[in-house]
Design a protein that fits this description.
By secondary structure, the protein is α/β, with parallel strands linked by helices. Helices cover about 40% and strands about 10% of the residues. The chain has helices spanning about 1-25, 35-45, 70-85, 120-130, 145-160, 200-210, 230-240, 260-270, 275-290, 295-305, 315-325, 345-360, 380-390, 425-440, 460-470, and strands at about 55-60, 95-100, 105-115, 135-140, 165-170, 190, 220-225, 250, 275, 400, 405-410, 415-420, 445-450, 480-485, 490. Helix 2 (about 35-45) crosses helix 4 (about 120-130) and helix 4 (about 120-130) runs parallel beside helix 5 (about 145-160).
Length: about 500
């Protein structure tokens, strides 16, 4: 009996060891990602045979300014930083992560800075990133990306449910492929592609991704193309993409090689412009289709009557609620009561017009972005906003027929444009000034033109500065302040 008692613990221990060996993954494919990047990255690298595993460091949350657009001063600082770090790689590769809170499974940003990411490490990241449910930003600076590596990252980014911001800087690719990040189905709202040697061909593809006659990106709010090799031809393609794009708020083309010709095309789309033959033909097709589908008419009427700029983009929070709502479209509260009779005839149209007009007045903050109050909107209100957000640019209610031409009111969605550090002369300024004066409602709130080939004291530049100082919400005087003769705010003394 004594021998049996001594034997039982040994058998039990053998059984526990056996179970542990069976449960522990033997290959990377068997490893289940837990959402804890520190743990998962180390374990996956071990299973993949990585000899020197990059460390994982938690960085402090950085305070962000309200604007989504860097000005020319910030771009200059970035250029200086590039020049000082461009010749060296990080001696100790590490992943920098930022947490939403103290929970190690709340990673909201992953940053790789200054070291080449090899294929094995990238494979581990591709396994881990989709499991980070809170991941909002992926930042890779000078990571030595290749075409296959970029394709892999692009596919992974599409699997990350909360990812809205991607920063890929200092990663020139042999093939111009960055436009694939802003396809029509892309959910990214912020994209920075600085210092990637993007030329005119890459700009052409990016312009087509922003919009064509048949498709348009509907979610991208901010695009930074500073410090590339975009010339006049590339700027013309970007301008073409802005013609029918109704989502982009901030665009930086600073420190490129854009001259007067490219600037003239960019200025043209900011004010009223004539539709091309192809655009006119497509507009006719859409009008005919709209007559066959009268359900789209209330949204068009409400936009025409609204005095507010229509919201053309959605915040990530509203997108999430909309997705949840569409999964369960039938609810008891949405079904009409048996005793109630549906409105018919002109009364129904009148009621729909009132509801649509009321919901179209969407608040916008000073920087031109959707106001934060949309987080408190009900699902039904978000569904109504969806009608406004999907309005087709070629059916813009402001389009008029004059002189045998179809005139579009221009891109009034773009609020910030940075053309600093290019080759613009006074000729460009005159065209830009004409477009600014032609904008009625909405339009640019910020326009950066520093470090170009015109004197800073020329009359046209001073007129542009005067117009923009009245529009820029950051320069508007606060309560108790007035503007001096230069447009700068000054405080009024009570005495």
């Amino acid at each position: 009996m004594k021998k049996r008692v001594e034997k039982l613990p040994k058998e039990k221990g053998d059984k526990v060891d056996s179970v542990t060996e069976e449960e522990s993954p033997k290959t990377a494919d068997d490893y289940p990602c837990s959402g804890n990047l520190e743990l998962d990255f180390t374990e996956l690298c071990k299973l993949m045979g990585v000899e020197e595993i990059p460390s994982v460091k938690i960085k402090q949350a950085a305070s962000m300014s309200g604007g989504a657009m860097e000005n020319s001063k910030e771009d200059s600082q970035f250029q200086s930083s590039l020049e000082s770090q461009m010749t060296t790689w990080s001696s100790k590769p590490c992943l920098q992560i930022e947490l939403e809170n103290e929970d190690h499974c709340s990673v909201k940003e992953v940053k790789i800075s200054g070291w080449k990411v090899d294929g094995v490490v990238l494979q581990a990241l591709n396994r881990i990133l989709p499991s980070l449910s809170n991941l909002q930003c992926l930042h890779m600076w000078r990571a030595g990306l290749t075409d296959p590596a970029f394709a892999s990252i692009r596919n992974t980014a599409s699997l990350c449910s909360s990812l809205r911001k991607v920063v890929l800087e200092g990663n020139p690719l042999p093939e111009p492929s960055y436009h694939l990040l802003i396809r029509e189905d892309s959910m990214l709202t912020d994209l920075s592609l600085r210092n990637n040697h993007i030329g005119d061909e890459g700009a052409r593809l990016i312009g087509s991704a922003l919009s064509t006659v048949h498709s348009a990106n509907k979610n991208l709010l901010s695009l930074n193309l500073a410090f590339n090799s975009i010339g006049d031809a590339g700027a013309i393609h970007i301008a073409q993409g802005l013609r029918l794009n109704c989502s982009l708020l901030c665009l930086s083309l600073s420190f490129n090689q854009i001259g007067d010709d490219g600037a003239a095309h960019l200025a043209e789309v900011l004010g009223p412009f004539a539709l091309t033959h192809e655009e006119t033909v497509e507009r006719r097709k859409l009008l005919i289709k709209g007559e066959e589908s009268p359900m789209v008419q209330p949204s068009l009427v409400s936009l025409a009557d609204s005095h507010e700029r229509p919201l053309s983009v959605r915040s990530s929070s509203s997108l999430d609620r909309l997705n949840k709502a569409t999964k369960n479209p039938t609810k008891k509260k949405d079904n009409p009561k048996k005793d109630e009779k549906p409105a018919t005839g002109q009364a129904a149209k009148k009621e729909e017009s009132k509801v649509a007009k009321k919901d179209n007045k969407v608040p916008r903050n000073q920087a031109g972005k959707p106001a934060g109050k949309d987080n408190n909107l009900l699902v039904s209100e978000q569904e109504r906003l969806e009608v406004v957000e999907t309005v087709i640019p070629l059916l813009h209610p402001g389009i008029v027929h004059t002189g045998g031409k179809v005139i579009h009111p221009g891109n009034t969605c773009l609020t910030s444009l940075n053309l600093s550090g290019n080759k613009l002369t006074e000729q460009s300024l005159r065209v830009l000034l004409s477009s600014l004066e032609g904008q009625d409602e909405g339009g640019l709130l910020r326009l950066s033109l520093n470090r170009n080939q015109f004197p800073s004291d020329c009359d046209t530049f001073l007129k542009i500065q005067e117009i923009m100082s009245l529009r820029d919400p950051l320069k508007k005087p606060r309560s108790g302040q007035v503007e001096d003769e230069r447009g700068e705010p000054k405080t009024i003394n009570d005495d």
